[in-house]
Each structure stands twice: as C-alpha cells, then as structure tokens.
Amino acid sequence: MNHLQTIYHLQPTPTARVQQRLAVRGIVARRRELLLLYTGRYDDYSLPGGGVEANEDHALALARELAEETGARDVRILRPFGLIDEFRPPRGDYDVLHMLSYCYVCRIAATLAAPQMEAYEINNRMQPRWLDVDAAIAHNQAVLARGAAGMGLSIVRETALLRRIAQALDAGEL
C-alpha cells in the first residue's frame, strides 16, 4: 500500500516502548461528497473506520466499522488508497502509540441503515454525514487555526487524508 505520510505528535526515543495499533478507514464518495463522521465533541470531520480486532482482516474490520459508525451495508473494498502512520501519546504501560491507518476506497449499498455506535462514540456526539470534501477540509482547517483547547489529535491525520482525497478527486482517480 502506498505510504502517504508519517505524523509525529511526539518523537519516539530509540528505547521507547511502542504499542502498535492497526486501523482501517473507508473512503466512500458520491462525486465530491464523502461519507464522513462529524464529532460534536471535537467539532471535526473524519473518515469512518477504526481498530482492526484480533483475527480480523481489513475487509471485515472495515465492514464492521462502517456499519457501526454510519449504518453502511454491503461494504466492498474497491482498492487501497494509502497508509498514514502516526506517533501519538501513549496508552497504558507504553511510551508511544504507533497508529497505522490503512485507507481504502469503498462502495456501499445505496441506503444507510441505523448506525450502531459504541458508548464513547455516542458520548462524543458522532454523526454520519455526506459532505463535500472541500467543505470538510475548510471546516477542519478552521478548527486547527483556532487551536481549540478541546481539539483532538486525529484532526491532523483526517485533514491530511481529506486533502489527499481531494487531490485524487481533482485528478479523476476516485
């Protein structure tokens, strides 16, 4: 898979205890509109997706995550889009969290079912929305420019991904 970018929220040391987390993200487009998640807690837009569970391949993880977060059905991966890796503050007994986000261009059924979000997603006020990619980029850039105190780290990755997707759409590659 094409490596798109490495993001450093912190710089790992050579002796750092690194926890690795694998995630998948789905790119579902209708012309320039994307199926995105709006997170009210952070006031940002992101691609649907999440962690790959043990004994789960990327296709199964993506179908599960898109169904949970957006209500998408009949998720089919068309092709890989790219990989973003990021080094984030740790969880638990580690010094660094190394997140690998594998992004795929997908097709879904024409209508969405009701999302089946997890408790933290409900608490974060996440909602699936179809939104023009340029509007999503502009919104996230405004949030980044404000440097809001409650801003999440994921907005950096998500805005970078949205820019790459916009470039691919402009080039007729999606």
Q: Please estimate the helix content.
A: 25-40%
Structural class: alpha+beta
Order of helices and strands: EEEEEEHEEHEHH
CATH topology: Nucleoside Triphosphate Pyrophosphohydrolase
Describe the main β-sheet briefly: 5 strands, mixed
Based on CA atoms alone, the radius of gyration comes out at 16 Å
- Tell me the overall shape: globular
Counted up, domains total 1
Mean pLDDT: 94
Number of helices: 4
Distance between the termini: 16 Å
Corresponding CATH architecture: Alpha-Beta Complex
Strand content: 35-45%
The H-level CATH homologous superfamily, spelled out, is Nucleoside Triphosphate Pyrophosphohydrolase
Strand line-up of the largest beta sheet: 1-7-8-2-6
Extended strand count:
9
List the keywords:
4 helices; ADP-ribose pyrophosphatase YjhB (NUDIX family); alpha+beta; 174 residues; four-stranded antiparallel beta sheet; Nucleoside Triphosphate Pyrophosphohydrolase; hydrolase activity; NUDIX_hydrolase-like_dom_sf; five-stranded mixed beta sheet
